[in-house]
Design brief:
- This protein folds into 2 domains: about 270 residues, Alpha/Beta hydrolase fold, catalytic domain (Rossmann fold); about 70 residues, no CATH class.
- The chain is about 15% helix and about 30% strand.
- The chain is built from 10 helices and 21 strands.
- The strands form 5 sheets. It has a 9-stranded mixed beta sheet with strand order 1-2-4-3-7-8-11-12-14.
- A hairpin with a 2-residue loop joins strand 15 and strand 16.
- The longest helix has 15 residues.
- It is globular and about 65 Å long.
């Protein structure tokens, strides 16, 4: 599952040798104070300064005990409120493999990494960090076991008790995975937006139904069943759904969730020559759904194979915060590429926004757009600014003068400002309603 490849963006010619991956990555410089950082990948020598490993006994397949281990790795010096990077590994991976991948994160980033491994490490080859089926039902025990530990790391004293002098910021929790881990990143990240600020899914499945390369028989036998098997998955409220549908994130977002339901920002990488995880069941499946529902994402469609471009893209993730809004761009023009072309879809190096410029108040929102290009701009994960279904709003460009331009929120509570360009200060406020005086004519009689 190792390949070698080269991918160029904007003719930046720097070759990076990635330990065990035999890969290279080409990234353009950031343009302006955008949402992406311009840090490049380092030399693969960033190693943790503190490590704690712990075993947990969980109820696995057939409710039998399994050992799920986790490691807490500190990168950099002990400090309070560090970002937390969660990582789940690929087929044949383990703690060492995940540390090798993380070693290419630039030293400019200090963070805690929470990584997972079964003992033996091949345990994820049956459940794909999701779950397994028996008795007519697919049970998401693996998904839930990982999320239980993630929530413990975020919301309890788990981290400071294991790594002295260290705590994590609950608003800066990120997720990365490749291959089986990329499948886990899709499922764990999209289904748990109350935990993750941003997610990077590399070469992972967003569904367990065809086309799924060489894994169709395994997925039907172990996870979601065949078309006529009637396997179900129960949602958190206990309601049953067909497993083949509910496990498909495109179906889940389109039928189980509404467009106004928030998801983390999603970074996607996929190789068009990947015969192991076809993009049709990963990035190419999800990109139209994310666009239709006006969700924030970036998608690197590179021309190479399964493992190429396999890096933790902290420069894409690190400026997203769960307690800060971000923008989703649709109807894009003048920047990036669109499928079937290879390159970066919704290239946020070229056209983006300055997160430090965001003003998010009850009746006032503003943000500075940077770079070149135009797009429809949808406000996502707003914190204080209230967007109500079908309500009218006004927006202004580069200063609040005149009455502004009227727009109306969608029935699902999304507010989209059409065709805005880089270099503009976007200001949005609710339209003020005028209450007209009521005149009553009284008829006096004897």
């Amino acid at each position: 599952m190792k390949t070698a490849g080269k991918f160029a963006i904007l003719a930046l010619k720097v070759t990076l040798s990635c330990l065990l991956l035999e890969l290279c990555l080409w990234l353009p410089p950031v343009q302006g104070a955008g949402i992406f950082n311009n840090y490049e990948h380092a030399n693969g020598d960033y190693r943790p300064s503190l490590v704690h490993e712990e075993d947990r006994i969980i109820a696995g397949h057939l409710d039998l005990n399994e050992t799920l281990s986790f490691r807490l790795n500190l990168y950099g010096a002990p400090a309070a409120n560090l970002p937390l990077l969660v990582q789940v590994h690929e087929w044949g991976g383990n703690f060492q493999r995940q540390e090798d991948i993380a070693s290419y994160v630039p030293r400019a980033y200090s963070f805690v990494m929470l990584s997972f491994q079964y003992k033996p490490s091949s345990g994820n080859e049956d459940d794909w960090w999701f779950g397994t089926r028996w008795g007519g039902e697919c049970r998401l025990w693996a998904h839930q076991a990982v999320m239980n530990i993630v929530r413990e790391a975020v919301h309890t004293s788990l981290v400071p008790n294991r790594l002295p002098g260290v705590s994590v910021d609950p608003n800066r929790v990120y997720l990365f995975g490749s291959s089986i881990g990329g499948t886990g990143a899709w499922q764990l990240g999209v289904r748990n937006p109350e935990v993750f600020a941003a997610v990077h899914a590399h070469s992972g499945f967003a569904r367990f139904t065809p086309p799924v390369g060489p894994f169709q028989e395994q997925f039907e036998n172990d996870i979601v069943g065949g078309p006529g098997d009637g396997i179900i998955i129960r949602d958190p409220g206990g309601h049953p759904y067909p497993a083949r549908d509910y496990a498909n994130l495109a179906w889940w977002l389109g039928n189980y969730r509404q467009p106004g339901w928030e998801t983390p920002f999603v970074a996607i990488t996929a190789g068009m020559a990947d015969a192991i995880v076809p993009p049709a069941s990963g990035g190419d499946l999800m990109q139209p759904v994310l666009d239709t529902q006006k969700r924030g994402f970036v998608y690197l469609r590179h021309p190479w194979g399964h493992s190429d471009e396999c890096f933790v893209q902290m420069n894409w993730l690190a400026n997203f915060r769960r307690n800060q809004s971000f923008l989703a761009f649709t109807n894009r023009r003048g920047y990036g590429v669109e499928p079937p072309a290879t390159g970066m879809v919704n290239d946020l190096y070229a056209f983006s926004w300055d997160p430090a410029s965001i003003v998010d108040q009850t009746n006032h929102y503003e943000v500075h757009l940077v770079g070149s290009g135009t797009a429809d701009v949808t406000l996502r994960r707003v914190q204080r600014f209230r967007v109500l279904p079908n309500r009218r709003y006004r927006y202004w460009i580069n200063g609040k003068t005149g009455p502004g331009t009227a727009i109306t929120a969608s029935p699902t509570g999304l507010l989209t400002i059409p065709q805005r360009a880089g270099g503009q200060l976007l200001i949005v406020e609710p339209e003020k309603t005028t209450i007209m005086p009521v005149t009553t004519n009284l008829l006096l009689t004897d």
